[in-house]
């Protein structure tokens, strides 16, 4: 157990937002799966950019533009290292996971998916990893197949193996479920997909803040992440794609930056990664994303994983002590997310009562309505922990839930 060390205190000092009262109570922030808080270094990176080097990138001959371009491209290199991609050509800046998945559905899907082909997703997907494939399948007359989960909220690997066939063109799977916390066996899924010649897109929105990513070791074809879930800014993220596949894909959006030459007769496209980055990018966002990765690297994965595991274990232990509380999602391999139901109480009511006590959790379907239908529930309460959370905050949640239970039952 790590939980209350001076290192956590030092980390918390970098998040001024955590040091405040809401509803007259010290804030407990347990909605990290929705978005994490931002350390001073990330906030400062945005401020410094606008104060000192704000300029458009890749275009200007003047010095400011060069400085902005250097900082922007330095971030790409740091992102490449973060996911261990072979080349910066494989790092495409996007608005986040949603845009990254849409990019693949549009640019890969419209080129490589045809009538009768199959795409596999799972029952635990976020809407952003369902709807783009539904639209694509409808348009291309392809078939969307849904891999089921078992009673613990784990992917049913036997059923998954049965779904996969020579017709499978693409498997798009969440690495860590935002609703259940399940960590999926990504390497095995990728291996099975590659055996039949299918490509794999990994939704790493929730994985990126919790564990080291290594796209070469995973051998995934695409991977997406969102900066705002890993201490970075909103509206920023990336799509990793294998260079040889990205080269073959159609552009996603068209306009400035993504072109080599334009005439009214014919346009040629820019090389990777610019081919997929039409228009002026989120420059400050990219620079702040680098700051968030620096922040993670400074803390170190070992510490993050150890601390989050301790929080998950302690949180699970305490919440299990509450009579009538049911944890939804009990996978053997789980990230620091606890979804639960408090007896028959509506999750919304529980969330409002906890909010009155200064405790921020998430309630509802967590953008996983089909999963909730499978589970036969409307939604859950969800407490999701980040490295800056503490044992004392979990005790506050425990006590808050006991009080909520008295009021609601
Ligand atoms: N996928 C998962 C698993 C998520 O948790 C989320 C956000 O909650 C998304 C995709 C969408 O991410 P974004 O809204 O940053 O595009």
Considering the chains and any ligands shown, give keywords for the structure.
41% helix, globular, alpha/beta, 409 residues, binds pyridoxal-5'-phosphate, single chain, 2 domains, 17 strands, Aspartate Aminotransferase, domain 2, Aspartate Aminotransferase, domain 1, 4-stranded antiparallel beta sheet
Can you give a write-up of this model?
By secondary structure, the protein is of the alpha/beta class. It has 2 domains: 2-30 and 300-408, Aspartate Aminotransferase, domain 1; 43-297, 3-Layer(aba) Sandwich (Aspartate Aminotransferase, domain 2). The chain is 41% helix and 17% strand. It contains 14 helices and 17 strands. The chain has helices spanning 6-13, 40-53, 63-83, 97-112, 131-140, 157-163, 186-195, 215-218, 243-248, 283-299, 301-320, 347-356, 369-375, 391-408, and strands spanning 21-22, 25-26, 28-29, 91-94, 118-122, 143-147, 168-174, 199-203, 222-226, 237-241, 259-262, 267-269, 325-328, 337-342, 359-360, 362-364, 380-384. The strands form 5 sheets. Strands 4-10-9-8-7-5-6 form a 7-stranded mixed beta sheet, with helices on both faces. Strands 13-14-17-16 form a 4-stranded antiparallel beta sheet, with helices on one face. Strands 1-2 form a two-stranded antiparallel sheet. Strand 13 (325-328) and strand 14 form a beta hairpin. The protein is globular and about 70 Å long. The protein starts with 5 loop residues before the first helix and ends with a helix. Pyridoxal-5'-phosphate binds at residues 96-98, 126, 128-129, 174, 178, 203, 205-206, 226, 367. Residues 96-98, 126, 128-129, 174, 178, 203, 205-206, 226, 367 line the site of pyridoxal-5'-phosphate.
């Amino acid at each position: 157990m790590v939980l209350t060390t001076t290192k956590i205190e030092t980390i918390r000092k970098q998040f001024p937002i955590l040091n405040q009262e809401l509803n007259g109570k010290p804030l407990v922030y347990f909605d990290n799966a929705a978005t994490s808080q931002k350390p001073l270094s990330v906030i400062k990176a945005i401020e410094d950019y606008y104060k000192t080097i704000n300029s458009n990138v890749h275009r200007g001959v003047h010095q400011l533009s060069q400085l902005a371009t250097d900082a922007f491209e330095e971030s790409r290199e740091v992102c490449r290292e973060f996911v261990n991609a072979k080349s910066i050509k494989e790092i495409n800046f996007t608005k986040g996971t949603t845009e990254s998945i849409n990019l693949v559905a549009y640019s890969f899907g419209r080129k490589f998916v045809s009538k009768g082909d199959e795409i596999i997703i799972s029952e635990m997907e976020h809407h952003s990893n369902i709807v783009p494939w539904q639209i694509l399948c409808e348009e291309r007359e392809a078939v969307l197949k849904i891999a089921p989960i078992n009673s613990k909220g784990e992917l049913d690997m036997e059923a998954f193996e049965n779904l996969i066939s020579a017709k499978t063109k693409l498997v798009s799977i969440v690495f860590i479920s935002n609703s259940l916390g399940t960590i999926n066996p990504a390497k095995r899924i990728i291996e099975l997909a590659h055996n039949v010649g299918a490509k794999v897109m990994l939704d790493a929105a929730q994985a990126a803040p919790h564990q080291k990513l290594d796209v070469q070791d995973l051998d995934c074809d695409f991977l997406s992440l969102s900066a705002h879930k890993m201490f970075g800014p909103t509206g920023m993220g990336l799509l990793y794609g294998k260079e040889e596949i990205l080269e073959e894909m159609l552009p996603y959006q068209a306009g400035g930056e993504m072109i080599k030459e334009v005439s009214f007769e014919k346009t040629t496209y820019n090389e990777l990664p610019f081919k997929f980055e039409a228009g002026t990018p989120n420059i400050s966002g990219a620079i702040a994303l680098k700051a968030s990765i620096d922040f993670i690297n400074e803390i170190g994965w070992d510490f993050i994983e150890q601390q989050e595991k301790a929080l998950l274990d302690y949180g699970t232990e305490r919440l299990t002590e509450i009579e009538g509380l049911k944890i939804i999602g009990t996978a053997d391999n789980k990230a620091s997310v606890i979804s639960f139901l408090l007896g028959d109480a509506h999750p919304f009511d529980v969330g409002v009562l906890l909010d009155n006590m200064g405790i921020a959790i998430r309630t509802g379907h967590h953008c996983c309505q089909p999963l909730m239908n499978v589970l036969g529930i409307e939604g859950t309460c969800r407490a999701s922990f980040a490295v800056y959370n503490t044992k004392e905050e979990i005790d506050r949640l425990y006590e808050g839930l006991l009080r909520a239970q008295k009021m609601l039952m």
